[in-house]
Amino acid sequence: MVYKWCVVPQCANTTISSPQKLFVSVPTNPKRREMWLRLARRDPKSILAHTNVFMCEDHFNMEKDTINYLKYKMGFSQKILLADEAVPTKFHCQEDRRSRLPDAGPSREVFFKRQRIDIVTECLRRHSTTTHTESLQNDDMIQEIIEPKGYVIYIIQMS
Q1: How many CA atoms lie within 13 A of 26 on its CB side?
Q2: pLDDT for 14-73, tens place per residue?
Q3: How many CB atoms lie within 10 A of CB 151?
Q4: pLDDT-based confidence at 11, cuts 50/70/90?
Q5: pLDDT of 112-124, one tens digit each?
Q6: Averaged confidence pLDDT in the chain
Q7: Residue 9 main-chain phi, psi, to 5 deg
Q8: Closest-CA residue to 127 (of 155, 98, 87)
């Protein structure tokens, strides 16, 4: 077995510490190689052009970035093949990137759900003289938000 280590700074994966992980060769094409290394925040000049370096699977979406992922996982292929447009996109091992990564905070879906609840609450405050059902049926703003997407919002009033 050939010893491989992930070239991404702050990633500690090697074939010894993580033998179950896949390691992908960084492209030899100068432009793609430079792009991959810059994405990983590795100075392309610090690694010779002919040096074979690797990135571990943690930095890719393997199912989308490979051509034969299922065949490889099922044992029908000995070698994993990357798609031509594949680039490393995940850098959770780099502490300073965690706050900027999309997976680090609440998703957009959660944000919109909170926004909808805030709008419903505000509308209920405006229509406090009518019942909650009448408020929901008469308020055009709520109807526009709820009906098009088919969302059902349950509001529980605690006394």
Answers
A1: 28
A2: 999 999 898 998 988 989 999 999 989 988 888 888 889 999 999 999 999 999 988 988
A3: 11
A4: very high
A5: 778 778 777 777 7
A6: 78
A7: -55, 140
A8: 155
pTM score over 0.70:
no
SS (H, E, C) the chain: CCCCEECCCCCCCECCCCCCCCEEECCCCHHHHHHHHHHCCCCHHHCCCCCCCEEEHHHCCHHHHECCHHHHHHCCCCCCCECCCCCCCCCCCCHHHHHHCHHHCCCHHHHHHHHHHHHHHHHHHHCCCCCHHHHHHHCHHHHHHHHHHCCCCCCCCCC
Spacing of C-alpha 119 from chain mean position: 29
Q: How many CB atoms lie within 10 A of CB 17?
A: 10
* Residues linked to residue 14 through DSSP beta bridges, in sequence order: 5
Amino acid at 71: K
Q: How far apart are CA 49 and CA 33, in angstroms?
A: 9
